[in-house]
Amino acid sequence: MPKLDDRLKAVAKLIRSPTHADIGSDHGHLLKALLQSGRIDQGIAIENKTGPLNNSRKTLAGLNAEVRLADGLTGLQPGEADSLSLCGMGGELIVKILQAHPDRVPDDIVIQANRRPESVRRWAQIAGFHLVDETFVVGRNQFTIMRFHRNASGADPAYQCVQCDAGERFGPILIRRWQPHFVDALLREHQYLMHLAGRTQETQHRFEVLSRLLTDKLGR
Ligand SMILES: C[S@@+](CC[C@H](N)C(=O)[O-])C[C@H]1O[C@@H](n2cnc3c(N)ncnc32)[C@H](O)[C@@H]1O
Predict the structure, then answer these.
(1) Using a 6 Å cutoff on CB, does residue 145 contact ligand 1?
(2) 114 exposed, middle or buried (CB, 10 Å; 0-12, 13-18, 19+)?
(3) What's the CA dihedral at 218, 117, 81, 30 to 10 degrees?
């Protein structure tokens, strides 16, 4: 896929649908790659700032895409898109955008939160979306990419057999797959938290959850 870094390449691999909307499209490269690779037929780019909006317009000129100036889901009508992505923002902002117009959230969503992916996992369990895939990408930074599908039928099976707190914080599918680059990142974080002076309540809790997870999986 052209012009995408490893993070957005991993996002693109989780998207395939007729009409896809990207909120916070900025440079517009994700939609361009999705259109050019045939993973989507039509794109809707949504931006709430004029600079990034113009970047999207430039990138998507001549392609089957509409670029809209709007705040989050106010730029999308119910049922207009089959899938949605929100990438490169904090988890809390992503949740705020999703909660503002629940009726406009398509059935398939792909999310890459820069911080606090656990906020998004928590939102999904309450809003009736099941986690169907997760990817972990390590580059200069590390990113979790999550794909959710609307499913009104009870508890999300992705969390079965995974310590609940650990699943929400670190990703139940990633924990089940337990791939080496993910485990290395957890071990690095554990070392960092262990030597962190003056842990806050939040970092102390994270440290405890991570310690329990590593003990359970690695017996240490
Ligand atoms: C850090 S950029 C990420 C760009 C791209 N999605 C990526 O992952 O590379 C976040 C973008 O989201 C846009 N944004 C933030 N809040 C938004 C909102 N409520 N509605 C639409 N766009 C928003 C910002 O203007 C910015 O261009």
Answers:
(1) no
(2) middle
(3) -90
Q: Which backbone phi and psi does 88 adopt, to 5 degrees? A: 75, 20
Residue 8 pLDDT more than 90? Answer: yes
pLDDT, one tens digit per residue, over 32-81 is: 999 999 999 999 999 999 999 999 999 999 999 999 999 999 999 999 99
Residue 42 alpha carbon to ligand 1 centre in Å: 20
Angle at which helices 117-127 and 91-100 cross, to 10°:
30
pLDDT average, residue stretch 125-140: 95
Check if 87 has its Cβ closer than 6 Å to any atom of ligand 1: yes
**CA dist., res. 153 & res. 110, Å (int):** 20
Ligand 1 centroid to residue 89 C-alpha, Å: 7
- For 191-219, the pLDDT digits (tens) are 999 999 989 999 999 999 999 999 999 98
- Give the three-state DSSP class for 197: coil
Which architecture, in CATH terms, is 6-154? 3-Layer(aba) Sandwich (3.40)
